[in-house]
Amino acid sequence: MSLSTNNDLMVPARTGGYAVGAFNTSNLEITRAIFEAAAELGSPVIVATSQSAITYAGYDNIRCMVENMAEATGVPASLHLDHGTDLAVIEQCLEHGWTSIMIDGSHLPFDENIDATKKVVEMCRPRGVSVEGELGRLMGVEDEISVSANEVVYTDPEQAVEFVERTGCDSLAIAIGTSHGAYKFKAEPKLAIDRLAQIAATVRVPLVLHGASAVPPDVLELATRYGAELPGAKGVPPQSIREAIGGGISKVNIDTDLRLAFTGRVREFLAESPEVFDPRKILSAAIEGMKDVIRSKIELFGSGGKA
Can you give the pTM of this predicted structure? Predict the structure, then answer.
């Protein structure tokens, strides 16, 4: 079973009114959790990798894990580069079998972002690889991406139309009020759903929501109960995600919630079973915690049974 592209998964999602989860991975345990949960619920998935995750795990290791698990489970899956900023890394992803590339030029002036995105489209199109562009800037920290509050820029609907037309990108990540990391909001969370509706009504490609982890209270409570220090962590409420999907979002990115679930379950296991020193048993607890999160996301996104 060959890997899908993001286009293969997202175009039906846009037509069907649901979203596909893009779950970030950097190791065997996270990848197992993604595929096992998706197989249980019959959902397609986008397996996302940051540039730092690739540095940590290696191109061949990641591709082989994803290909093997897609084959074993029968889950339609793409292998996606998240927040690509380095053309050398993008080229290596293409050489090593990635099926989707995100070029993040959101930090650049509008015309320079267009030029950078168009260049990546030209690299990817002959290989049949999907390209995600980004217009607008999200606050927060994710791996090597860091944006302060005064650098946040919401996506302009008119610019979004021009951006897609001039770059030829296959999907567009937009900024409507979400944020990277576990500290998304200081006040009541609120997304610019009206702005999303304007963009969705005029942009012809599927739309993407980054920074969408919920920081679930039960997951956060477990991690902090066993020693994690995450004061003030707050995520995007599930109702806001449902509204965003109803407003035209076809791909939702999740990373922080998996990290929190991993951390909480490992801390719990080590505290409750101090005599165990077998890494397989310790990390199996983490897998189950992440699967719980992924199942809840698939149900929230409406992608269950769409494989």
Answer: 0.92
Instruction: List strand residue ranges (DSSP E) for 85-224, in order.
Output: 100-103, 130-135, 139-142, 145-147, 171-174, 179-180, 207-209
Is the Cβ–Cβ distance between 101 and 141 less than 8 Å?
A: no
Pairing outcome for strands 145-147 and 249-254:
unpaired
Q: What is the spatial order of strands in the sheet that 139-142 belongs to?
A: 145-147, 139-142, 179-180
The active-site residue, picked from 8, 60, 82, 143, is: 82
3-state secondary structure of 144: coil
What are 268-273's contacts with CB under 8 Å, separation 24+?
Answer: 268/222, 268/225, 268/226, 270/226, 271/226, 271/227
234: its two tokens? 């707050």
Query: Across-strand partners of 48?
Result: 24, 80
Q: Would you call 48 helix, strand, or coil by DSSP?
A: strand
- How far apart CA 174 and CA 96 sit, in angstroms, is 28
**Catalytic residue at 82?**
yes
Position 252, amino acid: V
* Span 196-217, pLDDT tens digits: 999 999 999 999 999 888 889 9
Residue 230 has pLDDT above 50, yes or no: yes
Q: Are 252 and 19 in contact (CB under 8 A)?
A: yes
